[in-house]
Design brief:
Elements (H helix, E strand, L loop, with lengths): L1 E4 L3 E3 L3 E5 L1 E4 L2 E4 L3 E3 L4 E5 L2 E3 L2 E5 L3 E4 L6 E6 L2 E3 L2 E2 L8 E4 L3 E11 L2 E2 L7 E4 L2 E10 L2 E2 L6 E4 L5 E6 L2 E3 L2 E2 L12 E4 L6 E6 L2 E3 L2 E2 L1
Parallel strand pairs: 1-4, 2-6, 3-7, 4-8, 5-9, 6-10, 7-11, 8-12, 9-13, 10-14, 11-15, 12-15, 13-16, 14-17, 15-18, 16-19, 17-20, 18-21, 18-22, 20-24, 21-25, 22-26, 23-27
Length: 210
């Protein structure tokens, strides 16, 4: 694998394709290793993102989109390990933001990621879409809600679809201050908008809410 050390990549092109790359020890505000900006279509295959940090959200990856400039990201055979978000936006590994933001993850592992002081130990989704197919979440943790995944809405509908996936041994409310729920998955609806969770042939087990 090719390795890229201590760098935050900001992508605002129309299309991005990355294969067989390791991103290590990145640091940034939103998206410690990689930012996929509005209006972009990104595809990552066999990419590893390790040990990156973000001070706003998305320790490894930030994906943002709008209805006018939709953004999509596809991750296949990827490993996202040991990344940290220390900001209010959450998502120790991945932050998905906006009604035009859509992420699909296939045959991948998200493990040992942490959302310090916020939600979504591995992934935080707000007003966007996340589709999982044969994805494993393990050992992720959040000081707030959603030890592995946190889905919330405040300006548009949002959807989480999980197929043939495993969410196990993740922890919410890691700091034990009573602020978090959902050791594995947390879904927070709104009166005006819908947060939809669809689970097919998946395992959600052995998660902890402190």
């Amino acid at each position: 694998d090719h390795q890229l050390l201590a760098l935050e990549l900001v992508v605002e092109a129309f299309e991005l394709g990355v294969e067989d790359l390791m991103l290590v020890d990145g640091a940034g505000a939103g998206g410690g290793a990689l930012v996929v900006g509005e209006g972009t279509r990104a595809e990552l295959r066999r990419v590893r993102i390790l040990g990156s940090t973000a001070t706003v959200g998305g320790g490894a990856l930030w994906v943002a989109g709008t209805l006018a400039q939709p953004t999509s990201a596809l991750l296949v055979d990827c490993e996202i390990w040991g990344n940290t978000s220390s900001g209010a936006s959450g998502g120790g590994a991945l932050r998905i933001l906006g009604p035009g933001a859509s992420v699909s993850i296939r045959r991948s592992v998200l493990a040992a990621n942490t959302a310090e002081g916020s939600n979504g130990g591995a992934v935080a989704v707000q007003n966007g879409e996340l589709a999982l197919d044969r994805v494993t979440f393990s050992g992720n943790s959040a000081d707030g809600a959603g030890g592995a995944i946190h889905l919330t809405v405040n300006s548009a509908d949002a959807t989480l679809t999980m197929t043939d996936s495993t969410v196990a041994f993740n922890t919410a409310n890691l700091d034990a201050d009573g602020s978090g729920d959902g050791g594995g998955v947390s879904v927070v609806p709104s009166g005006a908008f819908t947060a939809t969770l669809v689970v097919r042939n998946s395992i959600v087990a052995a998660n902890l809410n402190n």
